[in-house]
Design brief:
Largest sheet: 6 strands, mixed
Number of helices: 23
Helix content: 40-55%
Number of strands: 8
Structural class: alpha/beta
Radius of gyration: 37 Å
Length: 664
């Protein structure tokens, strides 16, 4: 079989071959994915090419073996010259490429002659490895040769290179790529031996009016960077264009170089420095499409690979193995990428899930807050990874558990008619139990949080004692009471546990739930209840109706206990006005669960009953599994695709009606 260097190049890139050992370790990974592929003609050809490639690698190693035995600068130069002469062939004809290669080889041999004349006493031999590293760096610093009649003189030719390599080269048109602020100017560090402050002091001492400063300030003036930025403009005979990235690979906004904005401001005024620089600048600004497939629709010739991609976009997939390219795998990847852009692969496809026999308020609230997180936690039963070694202090949830434990101990005594006892003994037992069973973080911080929790618990006990003496005062009837409510009236069955059940003088019932956060801005969640986004109070009130003897009146209160006590109550009359609307909204959310569609709803994109959502994604323990979490940059395209999917998919009707309005 004839050698196929193009295939060798594709394999080396796919397998990330970057050093000599990689040819042995990474080439062995090229195996057929299944027996059927192993018997295909394409794989047989691949095996032949692998044999040829391995033979070439062995021959190249054998030819380079003398380099390792070289001694001294002169020996290294003679060895490299002999390898070039004996093992490489140069096509010498009248082409422009031949002239370029001839001049490059001449310059290389001249460089080797200079190295050969270095006396050993002037440059001690550092060893072959370090000498080759030095030689490679020396070659990288050489100027690109283009010849008197080289590539730059060919009409329509394009020559690419960095600013250092192309210095002194002129062209009709110059395209300056990636003129962004984080690259131009380069982020230069000050010289540790002569920092800018010392340079400025020396400049003041030696300054003369007729001469420029002796030392440039690396970070402030960046004189070298300004010179490099100006070189392309001097190299263009007709036209220069600047390319600016609007965003990086993660979607973060990128700014144009301040040098470019300063240049534009010379023509358009100071408006060119603002965020709307593109519209303010008196230049032609063309915005290229973000899609990588846009070039397939552009005018001009396409390569064979680009033609194959365009055929795939038009519904005609290329044959696997054509041109030595694994199109089957590539097309699968591109198809998945397209599904993601369309919002189809941002969350699991339709799952067949059995109906839940009963619901808790926590499950209902989680389903309405983020169906994807509900799916991971309650349908798949995943538990977040615990990292106790990373804990510095108690989390808000752990602090709430401690407070609940203290109030449970005190509430049981109150339910037995003993009144509200002192907080200190109950707090001591709760803290000791928690410390035995859980990581507490830094001891000092744990002690401070415990004191804060004990202080808030004591303030709550004083508040309870103060309202216990009235004629209409309620008494504690039950603490940490578990319940079940049968399905009726179009509502599902419920289960749960309430923190406290209080009874009034005429048998009235109040369901109390403790919340350990500041309640300064809290109010009754009537609007969220209406949309099925806050089901805790409705579930508790549904349970209250099942108590025996039946209470003449019911209400539910949320007691916010951080920095004082703030009660928020939903009265029976308010609940009666909302019950039917809540039941209708709840049925829509339960229908979403039965549909098997569980999209993530990031707080920065979906509102809560028409108002900005609380930032529940910030502390989400499942964020690593989410492709639209605002905790990560570069998710704008995905959230837009998710929004389109929500607006179009009938299965996501509940989200469209209750969570659709975008956050400001």
């Amino acid at each position: 079989a004839a050698p196929r260097p193009d295939l060798w190049d594709v394999w080396s890139r796919e397998l990330l071959v970057v050093s000599g050992k990689d040819w042995d370790t990474r080439l062995s990974r090229l195996r057929p994915r299944d027996p059927e592929e192993g018997e295909s003609p394409a794989w047989k050809e691949k095996e032949e090419q692998l044999k040829l490639l391995r033979a070439e690698v062995r021959a190249l190693r054998a030819s380079l073996a003398p380099v390792r035995k070289a001694e001294g600068q002169a020996g290294l130069a003679r060895t490299l010259r002999r390898i070039l002469v004996e093992n490489f062939r140069f096509l010498d004809d009248d082409s422009y490429e031949a002239e370029r290669d001839r001049r490059a080889l001449s310059a290389l041999f001249s460089l080797l002659d200079d190295i050969e004349r270095i006396p050993d006493r002037a440059a001690p031999w550092p060893g072959t490895g370090e000498a080759l590293t030095w030689f490679a760096g020396l070659l990288e610093g050489q100027r690109l040769f283009v010849g008197e009649r080289g590539g730059m003189r060919i009409p329509g030719a394009v020559v690419a290179g960095d600013q250092n390599a192309l210095r002194g080269v002129t062209a009709d048109r110059v395209l300056f790529l990636s003129a962004n602020d984080d690259a131009v100017p380069a982020q230069i560090d000050e010289d540790p031996l002569l920092p800018d402050e010392d340079r400025e002091a020396l400049n003041r001492l030696t300054r003369r009016k007729e001469l420029p400063d002796a030392l440039s300030l690396l970070r402030r003036n960046a004189a070298q960077e300004k010179l490099l930025f100006a070189l392309p403009a001097f190299s263009a005979r007709r036209e220069i264009r600047f390319s600016v990235l609007r965003a990086d690979s993660e979607g973060s906004v990128r700014r144009p170089s301040r040098y470019l904005l300063h240049l534009l401001s010379q023509f358009a005024g100071p408006g060119g420095f603002g965020e709307e620089w593109a519209s303010k600048a008196d230049v032609h600004v063309r915005t290229l499409p973000r899609s990588p497939f846009a070039m397939l629709r552009a005018d001009g010739p396409l390569s064979r690979r680009e033609e194959a991609l365009r055929s795939w976009r038009e519904g005609v997939p290329p044959k696997d193995g054509s041109d030595g390219i694994p199109w089957k795998r590539i097309v699968a990847t591109l198809s998945e990428w397209e599904r993601r852009v369309a919002g189809a692969s941002l969350f699991p496809g339709s799952w067949t899930v059995p109906p839940k026999p009963e619901w808790s308020a926590t499950e209902l609230d989680e389903l309405a807050r983020c169906p994807y997180r509900y799916f991971l936690r309650y349908r798949l039963g995943l538990s977040p990874v615990e990292e106790p070694e990373e804990e510095m202090s108690l989390s808000p949830a752990e602090a709430g558990l401690l407070l609940h434990d203290i109030l449970q101990r005190l509430g049981k005594e109150a339910a037995e008619g003993k009144g509200w006892a002192d907080v200190a003994p109950a707090a001591k037992k709760a803290f000791a139990r928690f410390a035995r069973e859980n990581p507490t973080g830094l001891p000092g911080l744990f002690l401070l949080r415990c004191r804060e929790i004990e202080r808030d618990a004591a303030a709550f006990v004083e508040w309870e004692r103060g309202r216990a003496d009235g004629l209409e005062a309620y008494r504690v009837d039950a603490v940490e009471h578990r319940f079940r409510v049968a399905a009726e009236g179009g509502l599902p069955a419920f289960r749960g546990r309430v923190d406290r059940v209080d009874r009034g003088p005429r048998g009235e019932t109040e369901i109390i739930d403790y919340k350990y956060r500041d309640g300064k801005n809290e109010k009754a969640p009537l609007e969220r209840i209406l949309h099925g986004l806050a089901s805790q109070v409705p579930v508790y009130l549904s349970f209250a109706r099942t108590l025996s003897p039946p209470p003449p009146d019911i209400r539910a209160s949320l007691l916010f206990l951080k920095n004082g006590v703030k009660p928020v109550t939903v009265e029976g009359a308010q609940w009666k006005a909302l019950r039917e609307a809540w039941a209708g909204s709840l049925s829509q959310w339960i229908a979403l669960d039965r549909s098997g569609a569980f999209p993530p709803l990031p707080h920065h994109r979906f509102s809560t009953a028409g108002t900005p959502s609380p930032r529940y994604c910030d502390a989400c323990l499942f964020a690593d599994h989410c492709r639209v979490s605002p905790r990560f940059e570069g998710v704008k395209r995905e959230t837009e695709a998710l929004a389109r999917r929500v607006s179009e998919d009938p299965a996501l009707r509940a989200i469209g009606e209750h969570r659709w309005k975008a956050n400001a």
